[in-house]
Amino acid sequence: MRLSTAVTVLGATLSHFTAAVPVQDSPRQRLLDGKPLPAKYRKNPPNPYRPGFRDPDDSAVDSIGRKLDPLPYRNGDGASVLGPWNRERARQNPDLVRPPSTDHGNMPNLRWSFVDSHIRIEEGGWTRQTTVRELPASIELAGVNMRLDEGAIRELHWHKEAEWAYVLDGRVRLTALDYEGGTFMDDLSQGDLWYFPAGVPHSLQGLSPNGTEFLLIFDDGHFSEESTFLLTDWLAHTPRSVLSKNFRNLPPDIFAHIPPSERYIFQSTHKPGSLPSEFPRGKHVKRSKQKFTHRMLSQPPHNTTGGSVRITDSRNFPISKTVAAAHVTIARGALREMHWHPNADEWSFFLRGRARVTVFGAEGSARTFDYQPGDVGVVPRNMGHFVENVGDEEVEMLELFRADEFRDFSLFQWLGESPRRMVADTLFQGDREAGERFLKAVEDGGKDEVTLPPKGGGGDEVEEGREDEL
Ligand SMILES: *[C@@H]1O[C@H](CO)[C@@H](O)[C@H](O)[C@H]1NC(C)=O
Ligand SMILES: *[C@@H]1O[C@H](CO)[C@@H](O)[C@H](O)[C@H]1NC(C)=O
């Protein structure tokens, strides 16, 4: 929490305690002086979900890290819960149970967790999806989380949508045929990407020792992993006489024992060999000139004061014409700054850490959501938002867009690069002195995608309002 915020909390709510608290070196004075609080206030902040707790600044509370049970009390209002109550869900959604006082209006739900998706279990793997059916705001993109054990194969298939993917763990082998009939094969590891344009036939296979898990993104939220075109499904629904004719008049009996229906994911009979040993050898085989894969995490990051950003889109991964991506890390106490995306909805996937996001939708509407690993968020295009690290570890996330290029606008940069009097008149007619301080802070700032408040201006040791304790 920023020091100035802490001071406001204390200043606003401590006035009736000041008589009892010695002024010299009191916790309040220490905050005002920018000195660290005594350990007792840092280590054991009081439970903020009580009737008497006040925090007019709506600071984040890490209810999971602190093992707190959020309750709907806010600044003297609210009441306890009498009816049935899902404590686990409440703890995961502290900002739905007690929304910041700034939340308002009819913003639809913008959060889903893959753990609430149906898992399709197959031989040697599983798959689950987050589409417009799970999360109605997921209109532009659909996500699939898939696991293939060592040797397990996602069978040869294609689909109407383009497919982008990020390897979450392990190693995976890809095969594909490009539009010119070139053969493509590559092995990928954690942090690597692939992209197959619509219709490109491909397969996936888990490599040793434990196979792989990855996130697939399709450029249409109505995508369904049940509706892909599978080799086995097609052959099972083609007259054998035609199969015979298509494949050089082989006797129809050759096809007597092909799978009667789709295989989808299945265990292979052998461990995959090296790439060169598995490369097809027919006399018409040629190597694809396309680059369907990219090492995203090997890109040097753009470092910011509070984290790092890697952007992969058609500028550095030319084949990825319909999916743009950013890999973002947000340090403890840092904020993916207030911004918006002008060209596409954001589909975010949380890999590590705990975060809260408030989405601003114009007409006074705003709603806050909490995310943890395995969760999906959507932010409709142009809606202002931030991502605040509220936990005790780094947040790592992917921001995905149905777009050829990643684009965002930074609020901080915009205000720093607008005429001073315009900004001051808009925001600070009520307090000229505050306006001066604000303009000084933003004018030399520029864009800082993941921002960490400078030391002295705040500090993450200071926990949120503990006023009735001081
Ligand atoms: C493979 O999985 C087993 C069982 O989950 C685990 O003990 C082992 O560490 C894993 N090996 C690697 C290299 O990840
Ligand atoms: C960014 O930060 C990483 C990790 O701290 C560091 O290795 C790298 O050199 C930095 N890059 C630049 C351009 O400063």
From TrEMBL:
**Which residues participate directly in catalysis?**
399 (proton donor)
This protein's cofactor list reads: Mn(2+)
Q: Which SUPFAM superfamilies match?
A: RmlC-like cupins
Region (Disordered) residue ranges read 27-59, 442-470
Q: Which InterPro entries match?
A: Bicupin_oxalate_deCO2ase/Oxase, Cupin_1, GPI/OXD, RmlC-like_jellyroll, RmlC_Cupin_sf
GO: which molecular function terms? Answer: metal ion binding
**Ranges for the Cupin type-1 domain?**
122-256, 294-435
One Pfam family assigned to this protein is Cupin_1
Q: Please give the name of this protein.
A: Oxalate decarboxylase oxdC
